[in-house]
Design brief:
The protein has five helices and four strands. It has about 160 residues and is mostly helical.
Amino acid sequence: MSASASPPAAKGSFFTGFTKLCKGLAVVLFLGHISIQLFPSAATYLALIPASYTPLSGFYGVLSGFLVGIKQIIPDQELDLFLLKIKAKWIPSLVAFISVSVSLFLKESMFYLSIVLFGIYTSWIYLRYYQKRLEAGLKGDPSDEFSFSSFFPEFMRY
């Protein structure tokens, strides 16, 4: 056996996941191309080119989902936010409350409210029921500290 021969790729290597990602992206791009060919008027909406509508960004949902992940990882960690010390488990609830409160007074922020709430709820569903936990051999986080009622204060839970 020569020294330049490389060992065979292991099953489940990095390129297996990368190949699935590339195939998924190819399908999404292909379907996007077909939909624009069939419905040309949707191109301005899909490209988020400002027109007579309010362009939306899904990054607010990503950020709110990230806050739910922080709630799961370090729930009792106190974070310094300006002059306040708040436990990490309350940050997603606080963001949702502030988003709802602001949307009551500002018409422009009402469009982003659904994205923020959807990001919080979707990330909680994924982390609660679908996330693979290799160390425990379980799927999801069945702990009481991460139940849906933990997003609300004690007096609102029952």
